[in-house]
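Inverse folding, one chain.
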């Protein structure tokens, strides 16, 4: 019996140290994963808030510009094309009403 007691003590100590080290590594790994998930969530919320703010600001600016460019009773084709190009409305078409006055020369 004394013969097995000597190797059993170091093996038991080694087993305890290995178990403690493995548990420590697993806890650190889990904390690192949780921290990465938390950072990802925070960045996602930050990006969402940025996009919402950016789009709201863009829509407000377009509304102000549209009010400034398109409040007249008539609009020239040049202003229409410029406004449509600035706002990015490719489906908009100039219907020709009202058309700007044309000057014709009657001199002979």
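Residues assigned per position:
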């Amino acid at each position: 019996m004394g013969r097995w007691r000597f190797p059993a003590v170091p093996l038991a100590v080694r087993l305890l140290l290995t178990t403690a080290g493995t548990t420590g590594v697993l806890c650190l790994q889990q904390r690192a994963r949780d921290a990465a998930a938390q950072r990802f969530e925070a960045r996602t919320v930050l990006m969402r808030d940025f996009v919402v703010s950016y789009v709201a600001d863009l829509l407000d600016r377009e509304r102000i510009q549209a009010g400034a460019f398109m409040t007249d009773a008539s609009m020239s084709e040049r202003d229409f094309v410029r406004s449509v190009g600035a706002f990015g409305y490719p489906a908009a078409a100039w219907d020709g009403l009202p058309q700007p006055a044309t000057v014709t020369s009657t001199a002979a």
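Residues 2-69 form the longest helix (68 residues). DSSP finds two helices and no strands in the chain.
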